[in-house]
């Protein structure tokens, strides 16, 4: 909604960030009060409708979580059955569904589905999208779970299951927000819709990247990705670090451990190289950005592949991995160049070959401006509906929000979660599910 004079004044919590004055002329103040009264009534209608459907929402959530949607690149069946379930539900509730089946020979059935539904608004050329993902990571060691990860358990206001928080809660919240708006029949300023996408947990090649390639989004769209958040719902993420996953394979000569001079211990070379890279990268890329809770870049040696199966053999091959989360001010190409130069030095020193493989590389997109329309819209809804003062943050994790920012589409990331994704005994708080649904439904009504 446009304000008098053609200007859109930023809400108080945004003005406080910028140190702006709260002074307004009398006519402007009176106008704002009339808007607040009207929007308050709308929020009340939304909240009452969501509360009335809380049990149905919870039951639906449990049914969905029973469907195993572990990413096929991680040994699971993929999203197809869950997508079919969601598509049927949307159609049963009167929605027209758009479905994109990306071809993936490595997935059961050969496809990776993403599905969408939306409500038409006054401006048919603009969309507010809520985008969540259907796939999950595997459950990990079952011994660490107190319940069956694929048989949801409700206990003390929480739903325990794999994918409950990541990203099931937000998927269901955005779905029921759309359903709430449809049932209330409220006039929307623009189209409001959802996308439930595939492949977020691996590389998004068969999910958002496929949708972007097909040009299914516009530069004018407002995009909310509820795939990160905070326990009190205060954090609106507007920036992400760049991501580089790398695999390094050192080659040596395998011999009996009692005759080490006859061979070259690839494990020793690998350990020394890993430590050299650790010191180099963490000692060079030192700039800080206070927007991020972890304000510096991180370079962590993580996975280590097994080399030999017995103690008394010198390994002839060794493999280790690094996870790099790099502040947007730095180039991932520069990081990779430093790694390759160091590898070259080690090859010459040990007269061997060392292979570098880029597993995943995602350049950080430009941060979404704090006063962008989507950030202000979401912040207003969080403030008015959730009753908390939002703050803008950056994260080291990756969401599909970064892919939209790289395409020049400002994107905000928000949800209310306890931040337990990928953990054993992952859960979603039912209260968060309900409250986030209210925020998502109210947001387009507060513009």
What this model shows, in words?
The chain is an alpha/beta fold and 447 residues long. The chain folds into two domains: 34-240 and 365-445, Aminopeptidase, CATH 3.40.630.10; 242-359, Alpha-Beta Plaits. It contains eleven helices and 17 strands. Strands 1-2-6-3-7-16 form a six-stranded mixed β-sheet. It has a four-stranded antiparallel β-sheet with strand order 11-13-9-14, covered by helices on one side. It has a three-stranded antiparallel β-sheet with strand order 4-5-17. Helix 9 (373-386) crosses helix 11. The longest helix has 27 residues, at 26-52. It starts with 11 loop residues before the first helix and ends in a 5-residue tail after the last helix. Mean pLDDT is 92; it is low at 1-37.
Which strand order does the major sheet show?
1-2-6-3-7-16
- Structural domain count: 2
Percent in helix: 25-40%
Instruction: Sum up the overall morphology in one term.
Output: elongated
* Model regions low in confidence, pLDDT < 50 over at least 5 residues: 1-37
- Can you tell me the CATH architecture of the largest domain? 3-Layer(aba) Sandwich
CATH superfamily of the largest domain: Zn peptidases
């Amino acid at each position: 909604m446009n304000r008098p004079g053609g200007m859109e004044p930023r809400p108080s919590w945004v003005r406080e960030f910028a140190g702006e004055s709260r002074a307004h002329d009398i006519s402007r103040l009176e106008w704002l009060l009339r808007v607040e009264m009207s929007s308050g009534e709308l929020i009340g209608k939304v909240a009452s409708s969501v509360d009335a459907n809380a049990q149905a929402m919870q039951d639906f959530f449990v049914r969905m979580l029973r469907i195993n949607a572990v990413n096929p690149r991680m040994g699971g069946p993929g999203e197809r059955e869950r997508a079919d379930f969601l598509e049927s539900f949307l159609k049963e509730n009167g929605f027209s569904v758009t479905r994109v089946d990306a071809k993936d020979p490595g997935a059961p059935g050969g496809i990776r589905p993403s599905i969408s539904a939306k409500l038409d608004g006054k401006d048919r050329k603009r969309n507010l999208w809520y985008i969540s993902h259907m796939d999950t990571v595997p459950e990990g060691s079952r011994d660490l779970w107190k319940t069956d990860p694929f048989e949801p358990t409700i206990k003390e206001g929480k739903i325990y299951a794999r994918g409950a928080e990541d990203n099931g809660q937000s998927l269901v919240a955005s779905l029921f927000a759309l359903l709430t708006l449809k049932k209330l029949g409220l006039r929307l300023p623009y189209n409001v819709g959802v996308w439930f996408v595939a492949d977020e947990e691996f590389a998004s090649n068969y999910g958002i990247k496929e949708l972007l390639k097909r040009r299914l989004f516009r530069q004018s769209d407002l995009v909310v990705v509820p795939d990160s958040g905070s326990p009190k719902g205060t954090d609106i993420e507007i920036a992400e670090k760049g991501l580089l996953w790398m695999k390094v394979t050192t080659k040596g000569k395998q011999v009996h451990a009692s005759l080490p001079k006859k061979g070259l211990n690839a494990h020793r070379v690998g350990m020394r190289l890993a430590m050299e890279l650790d010191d180099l990268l963490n000692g060079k890329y030192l700039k800080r950005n206070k927007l991020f809770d972890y304000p510096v870049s991180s370079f962590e040696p993580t996975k280590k592949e097994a080399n030999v199966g017995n103690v008394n053999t010198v390994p002839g091959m060794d493999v280790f991995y690094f996870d790099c989360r790099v502040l947007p001010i730095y180039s991932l190409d520069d990081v990779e160049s430093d790694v390759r130069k160091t590898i070259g030095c080690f090859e010459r020193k040990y007269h061997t070959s060392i292979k570098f493989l880029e597993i995943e590389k995602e350049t950080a997109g430009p941060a979404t401006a704090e006063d962008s329309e989507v950030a202000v819209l979401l912040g207003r809804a969080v403030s008015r509906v959730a009753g908390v003062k939002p703050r803008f943050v950056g994260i080291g994790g990756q969401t599909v929000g970064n892919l939209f920012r790289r395409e020049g589409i400002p994107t905000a990331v928000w949800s209310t979660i306890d931040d337990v994704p990928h953990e054993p005994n992952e859960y979603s708080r039912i209260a968060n599910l309900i409250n986030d649904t209210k925020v998502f439904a109210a947001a387009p009504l507060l513009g």
